[in-house]
Amino acid sequence: MRRFHLDIIEKAGLCISTELDYVYELVIGVIDVTRSKERGYQTLVKEGFCAELDELRQIYEELPEFLQEVSAKELEHFPHSHKEKLPPCIVYIYSTN
Length: 97
Known about the structure:
By secondary structure, this protein is mainly alpha-helical. Helix content is 65%, strand content 0%.
């Protein structure tokens, strides 16, 4: 009887390891761990996995520079007093909803 239980445990161990290995390979195929560490992002889908995500990532990464350009143009048209030491500051608040 004892031998029977060990066989089941051994078989279960092989199945679980194989399935976990398969899931690991799927996840590693999608998540770019190296780039997420470099960029400071929590998770990051590998480039080339999905064209739409690649496009959205590019837009997101170019956003700070774009907002800097927009704020500079806005400040050119913003009337401010010469008595003030500093020109007005434009701030963009990040929102995900």
